[in-house]
Design a protein that fits this description.
The protein is globular. The protein is an alpha/beta fold. β4 (148-149) and β5 (152-153) form a beta hairpin. It contains 23 helices and 13 strands. Strands 7, 8, 9, 10, 11 and 13 form a six-stranded mixed beta sheet that branches. A five-stranded mixed beta sheet has the order 2-1-3-12-6. The protein folds into two domains: 3-161 and 332-403, 3-Layer(aba) Sandwich (D-Maltodextrin-Binding Protein, domain 2); 162-328 and 412-441, D-Maltodextrin-Binding Protein, domain 2 (3-Layer(aba) Sandwich), CATH 3.40.190. The chain has helices at residues 3-17, 26-37, 60-71, 88-95, 111-118, 126-131, 133-137, 141-145, 170-176, 184-196, 209-224, 226-233, 243-258, 274-280, 293-300, 302-307, 343-354, 359-367, 378-381, 387-398, 407-410, 413-427, 433-441, and strands spanning 50-56, 78-84, 104-107, 148-149, 152-153, 156-157, 162-169, 200-203, 284-290, 309-312, 327-330, 334-337, 403-405. α2 (26-37) packs across α4 (88-95) and α11 (209-224) packs across α22 (413-427).
Length: 444
């Protein structure tokens, strides 16, 4: 497995953790950008050059190639500004609405750009998709939808997919003589089985609230369907009062009471590979985690990744309204365009973001260890370094009727942070199910 795959995976992980970055003052942000990006950084005269911001990590080489190819055929040149990943969101928010704002920039869609859309700072790309069917059909529909805000497209998919997957330890399952769960009844039965075996049923990094968020996301999706959170994302705070939210909270605490996560999950971390190591060492049987878990294990526990790491879908719940093929996680990252651009510069920016739909771009993503979001990449994905896993992941997302963006990315920052706190309190039983619902309804 290429080390680039690990770099890409860590970027996805950091995307979940971005709210933990230190808060910087506006002056410090501007200074850090100027020093980190080198020549041509934000704040310098741009002339007819497009300034393209990207989250700096191992996957950035794909975007460097895109810039190179674009500049070979465009009168308006593009310049890539690689912004250090930690604190990227803060830097982006600080720059938007100022003369230092990027022309094209990397983001997570949803709530990460919602405020910019509200203030008219971004180009509505809906007309481009409407008049260019080939462009629109280049991407898996459920992923393209994640770039929408208020029913309009503001993002073009530009990196690999990052769904949340239910991983399991094949060796532990074989020793217990059981199979991965197909139903919720199976899952509950496995909790009892592994407890008797002296194995924690599910690894959970309880010190990192975003890992617990994944459980809440899938449970609500399976119980109430993707529409419940869509209402919340659209600004309907009363949707937190939907019966499916209460049922989700009750199910979380039922899992805690059953011992699904063991007794020490509150002190287990993810960022230092605590949960992943417990899982790989056979001390936990399953782990609900983003797709980057594979590359983490490949780098840190290569024998486990090669021989004993399995994966499956999150099961349906009894009487649940959700489609068991639906997925949650980070669909991908997106390019968005500043509305300050006019004329030839705006047209050039649109042509640049369209490069992400081209065959060579998908090929470069696969070569980098990513699973592309383009709709006709089945054969390409089969050439991935880890073909079985890559094909499974690609098919999972391609066939998903919906792909719900991680809630802490989908909601505005002022709601996302207290939401994570409330979820952690729910898992720690500092809030009861009804108290959790009331606390979430109070968020505005």
């Amino acid at each position: 497995m290429r080390t680039a795959l690990l770099g890409s995976a860590k970027a996805g992980r950091r995307g979940f953790r971005r709210r933990h970055a230190a808060t910087l003052t506006a002056a410090a942000l501007a200074a850090s950008l100027l020093t980190a990006c080198g020549s041509g950084g934000p704040g310098e005269a741009k002339g007819d050059t497009l300034e393209v911001w990207v989250y700096q990590d191992a996957s950035t080489k794909v975007q460097r190639e895109a810039i190179k190819r674009f500049n070979e055929n465009s009168d308006v040149k593009a310049e890539l500004v690689e912004v250090p990943g930690e604190g990227y969101q803060d830097k982006m928010r600080s720059a938007m609405g100022t003369p230092n704002a990027p022309d094209v920039f990397f983001n997570w869609g949803g709530g990460s750009i919602g405020n910019f859309v509200e203030k008219g700072m971004l180009v509505d790309l809906t007309p481009e998709f409407e008049k260019d069917a080939e462009f629109k059909e280049s991407f898996i529909p459920s992923i393209l939808e994640a770039g929408k805000v208020d029913g309009k497209y503001y993002g073009v998919p530009m990196r690999g997919m990052q769904p949340v997957i239910l991983f399991y330890n094949k060796e532990v399952f074989e020793k217990a003589g059981v199979e991965p769960p197909n139903t919720w009844k199976d899952l509950l039965g496995l909790i009892d089985t592994f407890k008797k075996e002296g194995v924690t049923p599910f690894a959970l990094a309880g010190t990192d609230a975003w890992t617990e968020l994944m459980w809440v996301e899938y449970l609500l999706d399976r119980i109430g369907g993707a529409e419940v959170f869509q209402r919340i994302q659209n600004g309907d705070s009363e949707a937190w009062g939907d019966p499916a939210v209460l049922k989700t909270a009750e199910t979380v605490q039922d899992l805690v009471d059953r011992g699904a996560f063991g007794k020490n999950y509150k002190s287990v971390n993810y960022t230092a590979d605590g949960a992943s190591t417990l899982f790989a060492k056979g001390k936990a049987a399953m782990h609900l985690m983003g797709s980057w878990e594979y590359s983490n294990q490949k780098a840190n526990q290569p024998e486990f990744a090669e021989k004993h790491l399995g994966w499956t879908t999150f099961p349906a719940l009894p009487d649940g309204k959700g489609d068991p093929k639906s997925v949650v996680g980070n669909p991908t990252n997106f390019w968005s365009i500043s509305s300050k651009l006019k004329g030839a510069q705006r047209e050039a920016a649109i042509e640049f973001v369209k490069t992400a739909s081209e065959d060579w771009y998908a090929e470069t993503l696969v070569d980098n260890g990513d699973v592309p979001t383009t709709s006709d990449s089945e054969n390409l994905v089969a050439e991935h370094d880890a073909p079985d896993y890559a094909v499974y992941q690609y098919d999972m997302v391609r066939d998903a009727p919906s792909f719900t963006l991680s809630w802490d990315q989908a909601l505005p920052a002022q709601q996302a942070s207290p939401m994570l706190t409330n979820i952690q309190k729910l898992f720690n039983k500092q809030l009861g199910p009804e108290e959790f619902v009331d606390a979430m309804k109070a968020l505005k």
